[in-house]
Design a protein that fits this description.
This protein has 448 residues and is an alpha/beta fold. The chain has 16 helices and 14 strands.
Length: 448
Amino acid sequence: MKRLLLAVWICSLSAAAYATDFDPHSAEWNGLGLLQKDIPQRADLQMQTISALDWAQVDEHDVLLVFAPQVAPQGAALDSLTRFVDAGGRLIVADDFAQGAAWLAPFGVKLVAEPARALQHYENVDGLPMVSIAPDAESEHFAQRWQSRGAKLSLGAFLAHELHAPIVLNHPATLRLADGVGDRPVVAWGRFDEPGAAWLVETDLGAGRVLALSDPSAWMNAMLERFHDNKQFAANVLRYYCVADRPCRVTLLANAAAITGTFTPKHAPQRAGLRAGLEQMSEALRQLAHLLAGRLVGPALVLMVLLLLGLPILMRARSGPAIVPPEATPLRQRTALMETVLAWLGNLNADYRKPARLLAAHLQRRLRQIGREPLTPEHGDPVAAMIRQGRVHPQAGPRLRSVLDGVQEAAHLDDSPLSRARFGQLAADVEWAESLLAHTDRTVVDEP
């Protein structure tokens, strides 16, 4: 029953069941509207969305966020994928039960559609594990090869920046290390309570990096609206690959059903480090020798002077650019009612019938403040009246009616006790209704 209650909470609008999962432009519970619009604004980055992938349009400086892909890269598409990362591309794959396993397999990461054991779950529901970013010493050691000398935060601390509570996942898959990956580091930034099982891992190939998240549902609208730390975690990940020598831009590819084109690097390879700098100098000297063998001796000497002037730049290549820490998203504002509710929930032995009556009275008062028609029995259903007035969308009407009926029923309990868990559910429902009614105050549609 508790699992059913949580499912009803997450899938709050019955009409939204027909909406496409992970639609970047959808404001429904299962869309990515917040991730696509709100989070980039808060994290100070740019995001573009595409519905199909054309490798010919991809730059090796891009950050490609692949969400629940419906097609597996094969043949030329698979070759373009590996060449994109090897040339310096950044790839983030968020998936559980679609085709994400095929996107991660070339990099030594297995995505398996099986649940893993977690230490704790939200409201004790098995499908909602609560996890955190807590890399072990071995992972931190492997990640040092990616760490810039000038970075203000370690990579693990960057991903965990401003996280104050566990991240809540929604029926995630499991990430495991594939066999035969050799010396390639696969860093587990987040693990389940099971040997070899992780929910967030990172690896590299050539000059590029790959970050894998085993649950795309953690970033859908319902989860970002409900859990502040999920929202902050999304902002951290989107900024993770925004460093000084790259534009802070992410390309979101959700529900990819087609892959075309061939990837071709658009820039000369630039790898930080002394060895890479010496290779670049050797290539420059080879070109200079070629010029001296011909008639362009004068321009060659000018080039030599420019090369000597460029030695300080070569020395700077020994240390990579510093990572810019993400900005924390502000906490949700708490109303006086919610502060009172939290105080009640802090008392394990409270009589929750009394605060339930408080919730019912508060919600009825809010309806009276907003509704134009008197909310008396002879005037019919107040929710129906608000729909007629254009103040509540018809899709939200059944949900609002259910919340009102639930708190009224709990408020009239006389003999049977009201559990703390049930009261917490009612409080969450009323909080949702509060946000909806606050929105109706700003979007009133005048009657003709």
